[in-house]
Amino acid sequence: MAEAAGDIIAAPRQDGAPGLWGPMLRRLTADRGALLAAVLLLAIALACAAAPLYAVHVAQTDPFHSNINGEITIDGVQRPVIEANTEGLGLGQTPIGPTGRAQYLLGADSQGRDVAARLLYGGRASLLISAVATLLGMLLGGTLGIVAGYFGGVADAVLSRLLDVLWAFPVYLLAISMSIVAVGSGLHLGPLVIESSNPLLPALIIGLVGVPYVARPMRAQVRALRKSEFVLAAIGFGVPTPRILRVDILPNVSGTLLVLAPLLMAINMLTESALSFLSIGVQPPAASWGTIIQDGLALLYTRPLVALAPGVTIMLTVLSLNLLGEALRDALDPRLARRR
Amino acid sequence: MVVQQRRRGPLAGRWVVLIVAALAGDALATSPAPNDPHRGGTLRVLAGSGAGTIDPQVNYTLQFANLYQSVYDGLLAYKKAPGAEAFTIVPDLADAIPKPDNGGKRYVFKLRSGIKFSNGREVTVTDVAASMRRLFKVSSPTSGTFYNRIVGAEACISTPTTCTLAGGVVADTKAGTVTFNLSEPDSEFMDKLAFPHAVILPADAPSKDVGVAPIAGTGPYQIVSYDPKKQLKLTRNPHFKLWSADAQPDGYVDEVNFDFGLSDEDQTTAVANGQADWKYDPVPADRLPEVSQKYPKQLHISPLTALYYLAMNTRLAPFDNPKVRQAVNLALDRNAVVKIYGGPRLATPACQVLPPGIAGHEPYCPWTKNPGKAWSAPDLDRARQLVKESGTAGMKVTVISSDVAVEKQMGIYLQSLLQDLGYDATVKSMSANVQFNYIQNTQNKVQISVTSWFQDYPAAADFLNVLFSCASFREGSDSSVNISGLCDNGLETDLQRALATGVTDPNAAAAQWAAIDRKVTDSAAVAVMFNPKRLDFVSKRLGNYTFGAQFYFIYAMAWVK
Asked: Would you call A302 an interface residue with chain B, using a CB distance cutoff of 8 Å?
């Protein structure tokens, strides 16, 4: 009986039918904007992944070590990494600007550290944190949305109110509040201890803040699916709930999850940068794009590139993620693309 | 000459200073005549924000101490004069500085007559006694530390609302005198009476923190409005008549507007453009080369009797081990932190607690490559050896700094240095509003922190006794300014001896303070980094800029016409 029910439910995806993913991939690869975004994202991710190689073999520097009294040889001339101003009253010190060479390609920051190397290391942290936060948000939000939407009743009421409460807080306010508490002494949940310097901490906070963004659309879609004929039929045939969720619900919401993922990651990246900029995200000596912008804030007049470089990389990454998300949505729903 | 004598001890040549000051009087001072062509106009001042309550007996910030100097008067005042001359105490509302009797425990002040508050009422000895009582009633932050030797003070501290100071401050309306009786001699009592918390206010001033409602004062200016987010406005006190240009010169400008809300960067731009005359906040580090090059004539650099230092918790690992503290002291590249602060024109590397200009300062630096009088270079090899001997390498260390740009950078540098020494170091920066209290509280288990100390008044005790005495260490309190938790019986005896010596023999006391300074420096409880200098950026039109070492820029002496 259960087999028969499975056959009936599986009817929309008969053998030989194109399925969901094949046409989607074809539409996606035909979208030049999406391709460009994917290539750019991949290039940024690869460059950031290669940060240790760049630091050791190209820049030959430790980007986490202060080098305030360091020197660099340019065209046979030794120059201090942080140069004293000699004009006027001789006040102030300025880090060396972009050298156009392997060492200090984008110049130095206030600690005499190589900005280019820190940019790559910072990218690793920013990408990793936003990716982990996205994964966490998708898992938690997806699960809560499916449970609330499918079971309805008390479960829906409780979970929806919980999400309403989370939703009621402005994203940044909630993230900042949680971060301020956690940055002081880390997170202590019974045997689980996450220290404030652990990048998992901002990832966890950002992931939690992002849960309603996933759970709400999931719940709405699952509620609609719950009333669809093939789900009602499956229930009527006595198919166990876990199987219905796995075979009928999840495949039908996976497209939405897929579209949400890059968009949520873009939001998470901005949130991470904001927290780190406010000194409540990634903690020194680790770097993220947000902390580098913060470092550069004190150098805006003399070395604007220190803040601009991570700003531009954040912009490019978020733009790529948004383009990719939109392209995925269009690829999954070609009617929507045609309407636009 | 007077100033040079003053530098040798907290009270070195104090009586000579006072007599010379009284004799020289107004002849040495600058105060505008009624028909002075520079008189008039509005001085426009910028600051990031107000500094909290406007109550002069409650507020404990340098920003408002600077403001109060031309609004309020005490019985005594620091001379409104350039440089270290501003450390000289002169009679203000009192007509002279009395010599103590009763073994240094009794002072009788005679009040000048004819001085009026800005509300038109004449200042009487009743106001003086009431002001001293009010100091306790509003729980002034220094009531328990500066004024606790006045007879009756203990009762006032425990129950402020019923404070009478009976027998401690006695006003004689007929004789026009006020008598202070102390429970024990206090060599710094004159400094404390010249401090803003001891200003004289009308007897009917509310016995609570007035918040943003100004209280009438006796100086050349009166506060007419205060909104901590927008503006503080001063106008001329219509009842002010010059009585001592040393203590309280008349002001040149008619009005002073303190505007709040602009960032450091915007303040700098406003002064550069002539839209403001002076900014209280420092010039941001990245604007220094620009202002240095474009506006050299509008910049004023003045040394401060202050220090930036690393406080190491002598009660927490790894800094409970003296070898680790010595290693940090030896490894610390003071040139690097001076660079972070803005360069050698704005700070001088230092190893010892007492800054130059404070009596008892004798150049001393054991924490350098070639120990002697001055710091020359870090000694990393010796530092690493000490860490190795301590067996603490690999331990986790967290550096706490404030989020003020330069202090945050110092924290990051220190974290890097500790990594170099073999520790697993991290750095946390927190809001400057909470950091200073946070690092004091032992419950927060702060191992090492970046902090600074600016004198309340120019005495060695304000550094050594305040920062390193057992009395300044309070477990679990946000007000435990002995941050390193050093409480040594031998040192305590030395401190008490020097304080006692200061009452009768200031020169001998100075020598004792110098020895204590060396002892504290040798203990390596702190790693002193540098003595900062103050950079003031003023508008092109501002003239007669005067910097007093005690309360900094004396705005009453500046003109804009």
From this structure: yes
